[in-house]
Amino acid sequence: MTSGAISYLDNAASTPLCSEAVEAMVPLHRELYANPTGAHRMARDTRRRIDDARDVMAEALGSKPGEIVFTGGGTEGDNLAVVGRHMTVGGVTVCSAIEHHAVLEPVEHLGGRVVAVDAVGVIDLDDLAAALGDDVTVVSVMLANNETGMVQPLDQVAEAVRASAPNAVLHTDAVQAFPWMDVATQAACADLISVSAHKFGGPKGVGALVVRDGVELSPLLLGGGQERGLRSGTHNAAGIAGMAAAAEVVLKSRAEQVVRLAGLRDRLADGVLGAVEGAVETGERSGKVAGSAHLCFEGIESEALLFLLEDAGVYASAASSCSSGAQDPSHVLAAMGYDRMLAGGSLRLSLGYETTDADIDQALAVIPGAVARLREYGKG
Questions:
Q1: Would you please indicate which residues are annotated as catalytic (active-site) residues?
Q2: Are 311 and 1 in contact (CB under 8 A)?
Q3: Pairing relationship of beta strands 192-196 and 207-211 according to DSSP bridges
Q4: Which end of the chain is least crowded, N or C, by CB within 10 Å?
Q5: How many angstroms separate the CA atoms of 174 and 172, rounded?
Q6: How far apart are CA 165 and CA 89, in angstroms?
Q7: Which DSSP state fits 143?
């Protein structure tokens, strides 16, 4: 591995922990370490920090504080929304074909319906309408895709659900959207919203699920009855405080960061497309979140490309980080109709709040040569 500079372009997998989150977490590890369900002063002070964090997350997600359920991350939130709803009322679950596996697999496990997307990775509203009916009890459509970055028309999805599935609630996985989009406004139509802290400068292992008043869910975890009985277990107080601190940073800086990082993303994508023959950009850039550059290359395999990039100090991924290592073709690209061979050469370059011009320069200096090297090797 190179001992030189590192260009970290895998922020869709996880972001660096911001200093504000660290500062918020330290006291809860060192001074306020009591169980927040206790009766003594330290427990009450710890619980107060959790209540403060609940207020912050409610503002960030456009909900009431009492509608926030703290979870162990995006996967748990997605499962609680989909499976918890099904456990309560039964019926049919529906999701798009490009959902994160934390939604797609529960829906498939429950025998639900999977809705097609078009060639740019946007849900097919006609196919959605055909999948809806009185028997549907939960529909899950993500706000922004974790591989391609494509934003989904959630308002139109909500209109279709309200019109054709009156017994259904709408869940949106906003894990990838929160750093880039005003989730409080753009997911206002959703009954359930899940986010994960480590995607926006917070710690791993903590997230939140908005559960609007009147939405009935069954818990996946039973025990102490925390979080209105929806998520038993001792609160990760430090993680919750860190998530809230990171969310506050996002709310203050998001507009500026979106403009800055969209410019860097455009320079990166255009530079690679101009330097590598046969490179294909998935989706439509105008419909993506600002930090997402997703490309495919003819005649190479993602695994080999990632190895060469890492050796040169560029850290990226091929698809969802949860799928990395399996080396199976991306289900997202398959749903978009991409040829298996082309999809096998995919590269996800995702920017974040610490991404700089130097990171883009390094990636542009490395990627074209790495692709050329693999293609030449393949000819042999």
A1: 322
A2: yes
A3: antiparallel
A4: C
A5: 6
A6: 14
A7: S
Percent of the chain predicted with pLDDT > 90:
95
Q: How many CA atoms lie within 13 A of 98 on its CB side?
A: 30
The dihedral sign for the CA sequence 213, 214, 220, 226 = positive
| Amino acid type, 193 | I
User: Is the C-alpha dihedral spanning 212, 216, 220, 226 positive or negative?
Assistant: positive
Q: Please state, in angstroms and rounded to a whole number, the distance separating the CA atoms of residues 364 and 258.
A: 21
Q: Rounded distance, CA 138 to CA 265, Å?
A: 35
pLDDT in tens, 54-88: 999 999 999 999 999 999 999 999 999 999 999 99
Amino acid at 296: C
Structure tokens at 289: 């979140």
Helix (H) or strand (E) holding 342: helix 340-343
**Inter-residue contact 346 to 306 (CB < 8 Å):** no
Q: Inter-axis angle of helices 357-379 and 302-311, to 10 degrees?
A: 130
pTM of the entire structure? 0.96
The predicted-structure confidence for 217-230, as pLDDT tens digits, reads as follows 999 999 999 999 99
Residues whose CB is less than 8 angstroms from the CB of residue 242 and which lie 6 or more positions away in sequence, other chains included: 17, 21, 22, 24, 25, 197, 202, 203, 206
Q: Which amino acid would we find at residue 316? A: A
Q: How many CB atoms lie within 10 A of CB 379?
A: 6
Q: Give yes or no for residue 324 having a pLDDT over 70.
A: no
Q: What is the model's pLDDT at position 322?
A: 53
Instruction: Kindly state the tokens that stand for 280.
Output: 């294909």
Print burial letters for 266-280: b (CB count within 10 Å at least 16), e (below 16). ebbbebbeeebeebb
* Residues 128/311, Cβ–Cβ less than 8 Å: no
Q: Residue 305: is it exposed, middle or buried by C-beta count within 10 angstroms (0-12/13-18/19+)?
A: buried
Are 147 and 320 within 8 A, CB to CB?
yes
* Degrees to nearest 5, angle at CA 108 with 183 and 95: 30
